[in-house]
Structures are given as structure tokens and as C-alpha cells.
Design goal:
This protein has one domain (about 30-185): 2-Layer Sandwich (Nucleotidyltransferase, domain 5). Helices cover about 35% and strands about 25% of the residues. It has helices at about 1-5, 75-90, 105-110, 120-130, 145-155, 175-180; strands at about 20, 30-40, 45-55, 60-65, 95-100, 135-140, 165, 185. The strands form two sheets. The chain has a six-stranded mixed sheet. Strands 1-8 form a two-stranded antiparallel ribbon. A hairpin with a 4-residue loop joins strand 2 (about 30-40) and strand 3.
């Protein structure tokens, strides 16, 4: 009971836990898809993006896009997952792990069917793709999803609905190198 009270106390004096974050691939030998979505600027612009790599962190493909007329972050995050799955399917990659920094969306996808949810159709489309490809969907912290976040920013700054990046953009190469060497970032 004492621990429970401390958790919800406004004057907690305990020390915070230091954490170090890096890109996570869980040491699995599978293709890795990192995706993300975001709304930036004023007026708000919505974009999404992702990066597809093999288990040795070799860049296979990437994508970015702009969503006109939306500022709903949940839609943008779900759409990024959907477009990432479509890309993997189009490239005939059927076994992969998808990392998203939206815990809400990661929990939504395998959850029970919600016929009356505003994004029920999109969630259903994602679940239908899950049947066609063998995907494990996992959450990652944003600090460990920097390459996808880079693509999100490309998407928000363009007017192109979907852009395939067969090779990494020059400005992204240093982020890819950071992931390869396993650089840690401090997070309090």
C-alpha cells in the first residue's frame, strides 16, 4: 500500500531512473520496418514515412508522404503502418517486424474489432494485410525511431502523397550510421 501511495503522490522525492535508448531490432533475424507519422508546423501539415532494412541494418527501401487536410495524429500513425505494410508486400517481403513509436496504434491493431471506430476501415485494411504477410508489430520509443522520423519530416515538407526512396536521402545517411553502430541516447 505504501508503494501505491508513493506512485500517486504529488511530492514524490525519489530519484528518476536514467535510461539509454537506441534503435531496437531485438536481435531477430528478420526484416525491420520502422514507421512513423506526425503533424508539424503552422498551419499543420501531416506526413508519414518509414524505412525498411534487413537484420544487418542494410537500407532496402524507404517511403514518405503528405496527407492533405488532416491533422489527426492517430490517422497519420495508422496510415504510416498501412503504407509500410503495403510496401513490404509489394516488395515481396512477407516476414518482418514493424516498429512504431505510437503505442496507442500498436495496441489498436491486434485488438478486438471496433466496427464503429472512426478509423475502423483503415484498421481492418491493416489487419487484412497482417494475414497476407507475417508481421510482428512492436512499440519503440521515438528516440529509437529516428530514421522513420526523418522520413516523416520529409513527408510533411512535401506535397507528394507517396514517395518511394530506393536509396536513403543524403541527409539521412548519418542517422543510418548511428543505428548501425548502436549509439545510445540519454532519456530521463
Amino acid at each position: 500500500m505504501k508503494n501505491f501511495k508513493v506512485c500517486f503522490s504529488n511530492n514524490f522525492q525519489g530519484s528518476t531512473t536514467e535510461r539509454f535508448i537506441k534503435r531496437n531490432n531485438n536481435n531477430l533475424s528478420s526484416l525491420i520496418l520502422n514507421v512513423g507519422g506526425g503533424c508539424l508546423g503552422s498551419p499543420v501539415r501531416a506526413g508519414y514515412g518509414g524505412v525498411l532494412r534487413n537484420d544487418a541494418d542494410f537500407y532496402l527501401s524507404g517511403f514518405s508522404g503528405y496527407i492533405h487536410g488532416s491533422s489527426d495524429i492517430m490517422f497519420v500513425e495508422l496510415y504510416a503502418i498501412y503504407k509500410g505494410f503495403l510496401l513490404a508486400k509489394d516488395l515481396n517481403f512477407i516476414d518482418l517486424i514493424c516498429y512504431s513509436d505510437s503505442l496507442h496504434c500498436v495496441n489498436f491493431i491486434p485488438g478486438p474489432s471496433m466496427k464503429f471506430h472512426v478509423y475502423a476501415v483503415l484498421i481492418q485494411e491493416i489487419n487484412e494485410l497482417l494475414v497476407q504477410v507475417n508481421v510482428i508489430v512492436c512499440h519503440t520509443l521515438r528516440d529509437g525511431n529516428q530514421c522513420a522520423d526523418f522520413m516523416v519530416k520529409l513527408g510533411t515538407s512535401s506535397n507528394i502523397e507517396f514517395l518511394l526512396h530506393a536509396s536513403p536521402p543524403d541527409d539521412q545517411r548519418h542517422l543510418l550510421k548511428i543505428d548501425v553502430v548502436g549509439t545510445f541516447f540519454y532519456k530521463d
